[in-house]
Amino acid sequence: MNKATRRRVARAVATAAAIAAVLGGASGCAGASPAPAASTSAPASTGASVWKLPSGPRIVFRNTAPGPDSGLVASVPLSSPQSKRTVSDLACERVYATRKALSCMSKSGTNPIGYRETLYNADGVETRFWPLPGAPSRTRLSPDSKLAAWTSFVDGESYEGVKFSTQTIITALYGTYYGPLDAFTFLIDAKPYTAVDLNYWGVTFTDDGNTFYATAASAGRTWLVKGNLRGRALVALHEGAECPSLSPDGTRVAYKKNLGTTDAPRWTLAVLDLASEKETVLPLEGNVDDQTEWLDDRTLLFGLPAAGKDGDFNVYSAPADGSAAETLLIEHAWSPSVVR
């Protein structure tokens, strides 16, 4: 059975229950995906801590400063982002942290290169891990630290290719494994959409333990989608949006928006007011190919490549109302998350 056939079968199995859940507003369990095989769960922890978040509000990120600490998880005080950073011993390609947990997408080998997703608790101790089918793309934790999501490319494919495939997983940190979003039902105008080229990425969570937003893409189109974990379904809300990030107050979603063409993209950020459906496009100068983070209800954070420095990035901030362009916040940093 090839990949396209497997995806069609998975969606067909989930369709009936998911449509009822979305259209009927049900939030009861419609049957979660089975947990991954035992080989994909972490063995009993040794209790060794590989990272430790300093006390107080912080901005956590991947350190990209040239040198031996490049690629390690670092943080700075939220109140003074330009101050000296604290660097851990943990290496991640993508990272996201809360006060209670950390999600790390990292290399697991060099010959051949492999990748894994690992979850850590507040003490910096590894709790669970999963092998990844390709290079890391995005990761996120829910505000209450109870849910984790990550996206990886499949078979080493990436955005640079004409076509690419992604796998997006959602799981509870200590409980239900919801599995890949490929097995959820996707609805456009209340009708199931089942194209074999359908991909998902860039999850962001609400604070209710069930609702999330993500990106769906097919046939050259992308949508902001609203997901129901227990209903195992996704509904298209807004076209032309990628890598969403929900504001702390839950009223707006920021996302990547392409102002160019497929062959010559010009990425910026936009913010959608969920109540009024008004979209505000930010007047950014850089080409933003990142999943943004909210510094607070008024300000966005995101990474941009450092000019002329391969593998180096800087984190910028910009007002979410589109009143100004971006300003440099943290040099030599990537994949920021705000820990309060």
Give a verbal description of the structure:
- By secondary structure, the protein is mostly beta strands.
- Helices cover 6% and strands 47% of the residues.
- A six-stranded mixed β-sheet has the order 13-12-17-16-15-14. A four-stranded antiparallel β-sheet has the order 3-2-1-26, with no helix packed on it.
- The protein starts with a helix and ends with a strand.
Overall number of strands: 26
**H/E series, N to C?**
HEEEEEEEEEEEEEEEEEEEEEEEEEE
* Total helical elements: 1
Distance between the termini: 47 Å
Provide the spatial order of strands within the biggest beta sheet.
13-12-17-16-15-14
Biggest beta sheet attributes: 6 strands, mixed
* Proportion of residues in helical segments: under 10%
- Give the quaternary arrangement of the chains: single chain
- How does the helix and strand content classify structurally? mainly beta
Low-confidence stretches: 1-46
Beta-strand fraction estimate: over 45%
> From the alpha-carbon coordinates, what is the Rg to the nearest angstrom?
19 Å
Mean pLDDT score: 87
Name some characteristics of this structure.
340 residues, four-stranded antiparallel sheet, 1 helix, 26 strands
What is this structure's SSE topology?
Elements: H1 3-24, E1 58-63, E2 72-77, E3 86-91, E4 94-97, E5 101-110, E6 113-121, E7 126-132, E8 136-141, E9 147-153, E10 166-172, E11 177-180, E12 185-188, E13 191-192, E14 199-205, E15 211-218, E16 221-228, E17 233-239, E18 242-246, E19 252-258, E20 267-273, E21 279-281, E22 293-296, E23 299-305, E24 313-319, E25 327-330, E26 333-339
Parallel strand pairs: 12-17
Antiparallel strand pairs: 1-2, 1-26, 2-3, 4-5, 5-6, 6-7, 8-9, 9-10, 10-11, 12-13, 14-15, 15-16, 16-17, 18-19, 19-20, 20-21, 22-23, 23-24, 24-25
